[in-house]
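tokens incoming
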């Protein structure tokens, strides 16, 4: 996904921070055709046939926690046969987000940061008072897409090199195999 891409504009499904802090909210979303076309183009897919998610947004500290799952059917071009094929993808989302300036965001000195691969990701800092549910799904989908797609059952076969001489053998013939030349 392009670094300068505004992922929030691809699927602008949001929920308000104040609304989500009052009580848990459940959202079942299904991307419409124009949204799927935008996402497919941004992610370099031939097509995005379907994209559905079921998310729960609930209060967490002075922010929110987003949990749920998504499923998608994508069309990609096989890197071996150059034929289009469909794949079914799915993923789980668990994200925590806090408003800018939250004391819970903390101040981490980068020199003291010791990442733990088993620990939860640090919370996101919200840019405004909206939680981009669609953006979280699109980000997760982008990570699930195979960057080197291969149609199921297709194996790469090394082309036969034949009896083509190596470039060095051709040079040796031109030299006339004369070591003094």
């Amino acid at each position: 996904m392009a670094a300068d891409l505004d992922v929030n504009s691809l699927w602008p499904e949001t929920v308000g921070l104040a609304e989500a802090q009052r009580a848990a909210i459940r959202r079942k979303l299904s991307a419409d055709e124009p949204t799927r076309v935008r996402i497919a183009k941004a992610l370099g897919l031939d097509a995005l046939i379907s994209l559905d998610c079921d998310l729960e947004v609930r209060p967490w500290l002075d922010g929110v926690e987003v949990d749920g799952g998504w499923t998608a059917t994508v069309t990609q071009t096989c890197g071996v046969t150059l034929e289009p094929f469909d794949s079914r993808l799915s993923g789980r989302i668990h994200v925590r987000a806090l408003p800018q300036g939250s004391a819970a965001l903390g101040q981490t000195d980068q020199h003291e940061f010791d990442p733990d691969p088993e620990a939860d990701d640090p919370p996101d800092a919200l840019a405004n008072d909206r939680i981009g549910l669609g953006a979280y799904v699109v980000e997760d989908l982008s990570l699930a897409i195979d960057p080197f797609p291969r149609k199921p059952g297709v194996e790469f076969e090394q082309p036969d090199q034949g009896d083509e001489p190596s470039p060095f053998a051709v040079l040796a013939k031109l030299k006339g195999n004369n070591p003094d030349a």
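note: The mean pLDDT is 86.
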